[in-house]
Fold this protein.
Amino acid sequence: MQIQPFSVNDGNGIRTNIFMAGCPLRCKWCSNPEGFEQKERIGWYKKQCIGCGACAAVCPQGIGIDMISDSGNCIACGACADVCPEEARRQMVSVMDADDVIREVHRHRLFYSYSGGGVTFSGGEATSQPELLDCLSRELYDAGYSLDIESCGYFDFERVRPSLERMDLIFMDLKHMDPDVHKEYTGVSNGLILENIAKLGTLPQSPDVVIRIPVIGGVNNSEENIASSAAYVHDVLPSAKMELLPYHRLGMVKYDALGLPFGQDGFYTPDKEEMKKLRSIAAAQGVTITDFR
Ligand code: SF4
Ligand code: SF4
């Protein structure tokens, strides 16, 4: 989806985030909907469009300026994004060769070494392309990079284990303790995620682990859910820290650019006071609360 250098929120020091497309979940609050599928995507940011028609002039599919109404015919060739003078057409997901990804990471090597940073694999879902994750993490690990990963936790642990064993820090999400509510809002039950959190304790290098709760007002912000989430983490992986992140609506514009329905109207962002209270409820279960944001 993107290679984002100079990130400071997803691990220690200055890091390059590699956002890999494809996700087995469909969280209703997702801010990266372009990453749902492993498929090249072009978006149209209407507010930036000046109606010049350059995109329509080069489109091999005969798609006009309003590409959303004809997006079924788009082959994601990227020709329109190349000529758009306003960056109103943007390549949101593209195919990249692993060698090119590694070359891009090497470009910022100096910043990692001075800041104690490295590379963070993210998504979409970083484990949804296990062969690519294995290849990239092996090459970068052998080259001496610090590696972190952010995951939704829904993956075949043994298949991904070799990659996880190269990580210094693992962020894993825990969105709800109730399996039915979890399924209602993410499309899957939480059983595999809970299992995988416990299995992180079997990794031989004992990486730092941060279990993240994206706190979605109206979904998982009850004191009971936060307390039971923290109690579970403390029980199965006492060394893990937890981070509670308030819901945001920054991805709303991407739904519009892709012509996808934005179904998040019932959610709200907990205010600072509520977040403070929820963090103290989690801490009362014995876990250490951390904050990378
Ligand atoms: S090229 Fe860009 S600015 Fe011009 S009409 Fe197309 S999307 Fe709009
Ligand atoms: S990506 Fe290619 S096919 Fe799709 S709208 Fe742009 S020019 Fe047309």
In short: The longest strand covers residues 208-215. The chain is about 35% helix and 20% strand. The beta strands are 2-7, 15-20, 41-44, 89-93, 118-123, 147-151, 169-173, 208-215, 241-246, 288-289. Residues 49-55, 65, 84-86, 88-89 surround iron/sulfur cluster (ligand 1) (CB under 6 Å).
